[in-house]
Amino acid sequence: MFMFKMKKICSLAVLLSVFISTAVFAADKKTVGVIKIASHAALDADEKGFEAAMAASGFKEGVNVIYDRQNAQGDPAKAAAIAQKFVDQKVDLVHSIATPTTQAVVKLTKNIPVVFSSITDPVNAGIVSKESTPGSKTGSNVTGVSDMWPVKLQMELYTKIVPKAKKWGTIYNPAEANSVIHIKAMKEAAKKLGIELVEVTIANKNDVAGAAVSLAGKVQAIAITSDNTVYSDLEAVIKICNEKKIPLFVGDEGGVTRGAIAAYGLDYYLVGYTAGKKAAMILKGMKPGDIPWGPVEKFSLIINEKAAKAQGVTIAPDLLKKSSKVIK
Length: 328
What we know:
alpha/beta, 2 domains, 13 helices, disordered N terminus
């Protein structure tokens, strides 16, 4: 009888211990503010990759982490308001996706850890100091992952797919620092390749379709940079390219899946996943300034045969063999 009571008491003690530890674990939830400049395939994949890495590192949503997900919808003023909201709430960490949103956050706080992703050039954007080179520590409250595209290699490859195209078009929002950097690299590549680059600038998502129409008849191919404004309505560009038989190229897998012919570029899920690993390290006690920032350096060739056919292009067999993925 005594042994039975002792076992019962021990069982109750174990249950109570589990209950208490679970309650403490649940009460110690971390709040992560998530801010992205707009919603489109690349940035959405980035966000999913980040949260997958967090979960793999032990931070489960609803258990010990809460995500406050915010979308600036392409509006810098809204991005600033969201950033202020996160500062006022004293979130434990901010995951900022894209350049304008990260600029808004780092302008307002030097104390809350910030992990950025999908930023082309964090140095020139003023997000990390000019003394901080890729692969080094920032020494500040900021770290993250950049998504600099291999623009020269991209243009070299795309011109091989459509060698007869001598006039290329592009569309971008000059208010996006990442786009300006990419356009500069595209101009340099175009000059070396002996092709002409025709630029059309836009201010918001509503301008995308008109910009694509304006290029029709003027260019023989179009290449889009990592411009968030254009990507917010990439379907409008794809529609015009299909109708007018204009080959369209991008720099990420998501854009190819949506209807561009090809991309030699990044998997944005991997960009976010890498950033998520850094965030988990911070929430476990490391200082963001002690975690090196840097680019994702893995690139792959993705080809959409269906899109190529729609835009009047035949992909050479050797390129199909070299590609990492072919969409039929």
